[in-house]
Amino acid sequence: MDWKKIYQDRLVTAEEALKHIKSGDRVGVGHAMAEPTYLLEEMVRMKELYKNVEITGLVPGKAPYAAEGLYEHFKPKMMFLGTATRKAVERQEAEFIPCFFNDVPRTYRDVLPVDVALVTLTPPDKHGYCSVGISCDFTKTFADTGKIVIAQINKHMPRTLGDTFVHVSDVDFFVEYDQPLTELGAPVIGEVESEIGRYIASMVKDGDCLQLGIGAIPDAALQFMTDKKDLGIHSEMISDGVMNLMEAGNITNKRKTLHKNKTVVTFLMGSQKMYDYVDDNPSFLFYPVDYVNDPRVIMQNDNMVCINSCIQVDLQGQVVSGSIGLRQFSGVGGQVDFVRGALWSKGGRNIIAMPSTVKGKVSKISPFITEGSSVTTSINDVDYIVTEYGIAKLGSKSLQERARELINIAHPDFRAELAEEYERRFGHKFDYNKQ
Ligand code: COA
């Protein structure tokens, strides 16, 4: 059948499409900046039609369904928290599901299938294919497996290349509504972040393949890589810093041992400039997250260097990244996927970087993890920890050696109390000069 006819037959208003959501359904929503914001706002406007609709996904965008007072209508159950869903969890109006990012597509395909998928797609190309754009991750899984697929067709969504395409015949309802994608504000890079960035950059060699987490530290690290040659990217996500180094010629992907010449990602968040940059750009490959974040795929990149952040590290090297005590802050995301992939990569390094304190008041290196916190990266997987005071190598080191390494990169104000704990634990004097 002519795809143009299919498209026209299925083109409806948001209200017509959203009436197909039933009370008690599980609704999967597109990820991060690819959230179909217009559809979600309309769904909230129509809230009286719904009772106990479960809303699921990962990093939410604006998440209007998570606003106060909507819980009898919408029950968010998310695998990662952002500002709106974190507040909803704190009000006990949302729940959190722990899940490795690489395992999210399998979970939605085989265990928690969605009744209705709400996604953003580009307008169809001349062959009748729409692209999921800047969020391939599990948004593609929702589009492929939702029992009912409702797409907001948004001309502002970049058409990205890789495994991002959905044929119009696989979508049940199209709602045309153009709205600029939400942009990620530029991170604030202070002195501490710059110092950490300098240490990280000193660990990166020409030809390395990088994964970068979100935030100021990865961007600060990239700022100190302007003298590097032929870097590659295989990363769950990227933002503007990667674009800047691609444009400057430091990232060429030429020496990658998997997907040579291509920047491989599963999603991105950045400025409008970046959204324009990836549009129809053959130097990028977007794949679903069960491919990009599979440690067995990641390890095929030689010299894989992954750079992530955390909330707390204890003296054994247990890394907490998603919670502060019992308060769920974010989730595991792709941290462990990349930590493992880098560990198994020939010449790989995994780096967890963080400021040494929370605003100078609390040491992030601590004798014990806070009661109630869940460990993200275990003592068996951890390798390098970086603060503004230096680099601690923990992989292959004893518990005593780890503690010494960590105390030496803790904030000076907290070293004495950490040293006291060391002496209590290991029965001998802490020597500041001994690694
Ligand atoms: N004790 C108490 N509170 C702490 C803390 C500690 N040791 N460390 C951080 N916090 C608080 C901060 O004060 C801040 O609180 P606020 O939001 O109320 O101000 C909050 O935790 C976040 O800290 P911040 O330093 O601003 O976080 P960030 O934006 O740099 O993100 C992570 C750091 C760890 C939360 C983030 O990297 C993450 O979620 N990681 C897990 C997922 C992941 O690594 N994915 C990989 C690829 S994207």
Spatially, the strands of the biggest sheet line up as 13-12-11-10-14-19-23-24
Give a short account of the largest sheet: 8 strands, mixed
As residue ranges, the low-confidence spans are none
| Record field, number of beta strands | 24
Q: How is this structure best described in words?
A:
By secondary structure, the chain is of the alpha/beta class. The protein has helices at residues 3-9, 14-18, 37-45, 83-90, 104-111, 139-145, 191-202, 216-223, 240-248, 272-278, 289-292, 295-298, 335-344, 399-409, 412-426; strands spanning 26-29, 53-57, 74-78, 95-96, 116-121, 129-131, 148-153, 165-167, 173-176, 209-212, 232-238, 263-268, 284-286, 304-309, 312-314, 319-320, 323-324, 327-328, 349-353, 357-358, 362-363, 365-366, 384-387, 390-393. An 8-stranded mixed β-sheet has the order 13-12-11-10-14-19-23-24, sandwiched between helices. Strands 4-3-2-1-5-7-9 form a 7-stranded parallel β-sheet, with helices on both faces. It has a 3-stranded mixed β-sheet with strand order 16-15-22, covered by helices on one side. It is globular, with a radius of gyration of 23 Å. The mean pLDDT is 97. The chain binds coenzyme A.
